[in-house]
Amino acid sequence: MTEVIGVGIATIDVIHEVAAYPEDPVVVDAEVSRRKCGERTGCLGGRCRWLGMSTDPTKDSEAAFIHEDLSHFGVDCSLASVKEGSMPISHILSSRETGSRTIVHSRNLAELSYKAFVKQLAQYHEATQNDTNKPVWVHFEGRNVVATEQMMLHVRTKMTTAKISVEIEALRNGWDSVVKLIAQADYVFLSKEYIREKLGFPNAQQFFEAVEAKKWGSDLTNCAIAFICPWGDEGVYYLDVLGSTEHHVPATRLDKAVETIGAGDAFIGASLAGFSRGIEPMQVVLKTACEVASGKCLKQGFELVTDDLSKWKQILQGETRFAGTNAA
To answer: How many independent structural domains does the chain possess?
Structure first.
């Protein structure tokens, strides 16, 4: 079975639920306050490892909470690089009326360095007895662009059979530097906000047309199999690079969202669970990922409805298929 190594940060989400957003400045009592840590593929039957920065979980209760929560969903934290500081925290104001949220993020922990990445990856190779043929998928959160490019190049050089995916979301990262990450990736997850606000395209289709027209040169699609653009309640748009075809998978319409926090993580996690197992066609994986994200919006946290979870696992593990795989 292919293992997924997720390279990025793990954050504690402190969620304050309010009945509705106040229209004027006012003190509002939270209906409920709770904390959680997001995760990606573990609860869908994937074998996952997290490679990122962490404080010492034996000394820091916040790090211990993150490690325990990830482990609960089947994510191995043994590759975490331990450093002094404090774990990243996001304080989230969540509206029960609309399901939308406002996020304030803070961190006092260094970004994962290239040197630390190589060291932890060597630990992984040692644990797997240096089996270079062991199937592995490395997913990068495109944060610290310069170091991430070095990491991706290292994987391309030292783990030649590995699949690589990257997530582009942070608006602080310029397109000229992001292109270098995309050029090393097999699968690219690009957010709606980045396409609209950073690149100035009103929709995914115009971005895909620019990619196919080689607006940024041919290096952008050196390795790419697909560009995947989640688009909120519209579902997901994707470009099948090898087939030169654009597709749209609509999302399930929800009467009312309970919690949208983590829906993007749920979508990417489900996608990686399917892609890493070689499930085809691509639309099967992405349709299921949309269903998982919608299911997450109907629940607090990642404890999804058991019957739905069982169905999604069967699809993403290749045990069943469903009808209607023609592109919309």
So the answer is: 1
